[in-house]
Amino acid sequence: MTRVAVVTGGASGLGLAICQHLAGADRRVAVLDLNGAAAKDTAQGLRAAGAQAMAVEVDVSDRASVDAAFDRVRAEFGPVQIVVTSAAISGFTPFEEITVDLWNRYLAVNLTGTFHCVQSAIEDMVAAGWGRVVTISSAAGQTGTARQGHYSATKGGVIALTKAVALEYAARGITANTIPPFAVDTPSLRGQQSSRNLPKTERIARMIPAGRIGTPDDIAATCAFLCSEAAGYITGQVIAANGGAIL
């Protein structure tokens, strides 16, 4: 059976790798991203590799935008059985400098955006009696991170939301799990390191028992498994692909 997968933040970084791992003969992949042009490029690349893919521009913080995006996916590909929420914003701000506007922006994108996308897909999954929800949270949501109080709070909320969805829908054939990356070699991480006084990639790698930082493929492979038939008895779990950084 062909499954329809929606990946938010799918145009770059982790989301791009997840789209590549999910694409295949038995899946149609919808690449959703705020950057519509980049989403089109990603979808075109997937199609060139033989996959069925489409692109939709979306602002996950805007419920009307999310609902319209999912309606487009249904119209072209059919009901959604897999949703991966990778769209997020991150950054470093000392706690006393976090404004209410900044706080609300992080909530709107990272936590409310996840809620919007999962809720927009869940009815399709209930109707099918099968579904996979994978949220991309963060190690910051498990432990907290200095100068990331706003980001940490939203990602902790994503973890709790995922567990709540898992409990509510487990008996209906729907699983919900979250992946909390620690440090992953993405353009976002390298950009933060170059613009701020943050530890370099090599120094971070020495903090990880595996001796290296993660790659997008490390996270994407874990995500692809959680979206598979084989992972049907795994739900409500925090699956950390982090090289042993947090145990």
From TrEMBL:
InterPro entries: KR_dom, NAD(P)-bd_dom_sf, Sc_DH/Rdtase_CS, SDR, SDR_fam. It holds the Pfam family adh_short_C2. Residues 3-185 form the Ketoreductase domain. This is SDR family oxidoreductase. GO terms for biological process: monocarboxylic acid metabolic process. Keywords: Oxidoreductase. Transmembrane segments: none annotated. GO terms for molecular function: oxidoreductase activity. The lineage of its organism: Bacteria, Bacillati, Actinomycetota, Actinomycetes, Frankiales. Belongs to the short-chain dehydrogenases/reductases (SDR) family. The keyword Oxidoreductase applies.
